[in-house]
# Entry
Amino acid sequence: MQTKQVLKYLIEQEVRKYLREGEDITTPGPLKPARSFEEDPVQFILSKYPSLRETLAMLLTNDYPDYITGVYVIAPKPTTFKIVLHNGQSFYLRYLGRSYEAKIEAKRYYLLTLGERQRATLAIAHLLELGAPTNIEGPEKEVAHNETPAEVGGGSPSSPSGQPEPPQPETPPSQAEEEKTES
# Structure
């Protein structure tokens, strides 16, 4: 009888701690409670589906919010999510009861087995390599010591201003042959 009371007390303490801190004890990373969908749609969906949050942490590390810009619920049954990465690429996660199935670049990975999880993680890493984030600019062209910026800009040597000349309209081959025969 004594152990039941101790167990009940410990559970009540953990529940109170959970409600005070606003953190999920069983999942990695803090849960920022979203008050409504309009304020923060990604956090709202992740707080509504904690297993999705765990799966994203497994695939992308606990810093997954740095790599995703959107989470969309695509279908209610089976629950399907579209995960949009920061570079505009996306992949899908489908909840199958015990685990998720990831669809990345038209390939499916059943995330219950370790080998499939590793292949899915590598496929997501490949997606992240495909494009740069939208807020980062690429490297500028380097100017050599003896060149001016107009020469590096790609202007043609025949134009004095360094601006490229507009393309001349091409004549169809049949008209070009007729012009040669007339002259």
Strands lie at 68-75, 80-85, 90-95, 100-104, 107-110.
